[in-house]
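Hello Y.,

Per our agreement to keep a running log of every chain we model this quarter, I'm adding this entry. I've kept the format consistent with earlier entries: sequence first, then predicted structure.
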Amino acid sequence: MRDEGSPLYDITTQIDVTHFYHYVKENQLSFYYALIYATTKVMNRIENFRYKIRGADVVLIERLIPSFTDLKTESELFHIVTLDFEGDLKQFSDEAKRVSYAQKAYFPNTEYQSDTMIQFSCLPWFSFTNLGNELSLDRNDGIPKVTWGKFVKQNGRILLPYSVQVNHRLVDGLHLGKLINQLQTYLDSLGNQPTI
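Predicted structure for the entry above:
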């Protein structure tokens, strides 16, 4: 049997969250939930991220939903929170906080099909220049995995290490470029928005 290798790959870059950081702090929103919202919003606009391999077919799903790690207060045990992607930035952030706080199970069953998810994680304790996500052995795994680390301040800017893992059979560098550039534009645009 021939080993075809894994088509999964990841990139790590920096995004400028200066305007976004000030916007979420002024509006008393969670930076974590707000960036999950922003990434999900932008990723849903780019068709290739919504392609999924199901059996022998490649299908286009309607939308992606976020599934993310979270920590209870004063705990070192994370739990997985999955919720529908609805509402505006504030509504989503409020709902993510409510669902996470109310959830008792660490790894609950979910009503959502796993390949409709974007898996999010955060490493706020340190910055990084490269990140290798856990490697799936499933060549058809089309679940984007997004992780960011601790931001750094440079020359008056706030820069965030940001990593994305995708399946090369579905998402090429062109589409990752669209994601990063469109996400940056969206985050910058919030600097011109009034306080909620």
